[in-house]
Amino acid sequence: MGSGDGAGRQRSIVVLVVDSDEHARFIYRSMLLHHGYDVVTVSDGPTGLQVCDASPPNVIVIDVDPPTCPSLDVVRALAEHPRYRGRTIAMTRRAMHHEQPALRAIHFAALLIKPVDPKLVVNAVRGAFGIAD
Hints:
Elements: E1 14-18, H1 22-34, E2 38-42, H2 45-54, E3 59-63, H3 72-79, E4 88-92, H4 101-104, E5 110-113, H5 118-128
Parallel strand pairs: 1-2, 1-3, 3-4, 4-5
Helix pairs in contact: 1-5
């Protein structure tokens, strides 16, 4: 998944990671870089929207819990945008059955319940592009 414009080279896949937890951003960024992805990290949903407007990523990994996203409106705007439909991976602590209907109604490539193993994030990113393990 290297970058370049030579024949036979693949365009880089850019992953935007949106998470208020600095340690989580570092871990997901490190794991995704290790697997050949270009990674941009931000700490909140509104900044994530700005990044998407300025330099659209190929896939979004977003923590949907406050304070990263104080409401599901930001998440819904990203996940249901034609560019990101099927390419938005959500992470949440909302593991209780009654908390999930609103999340499941949004078109995510994956909904991961925290704590999330970074390998699952990489697998979800791969899955968003139809890449099998």
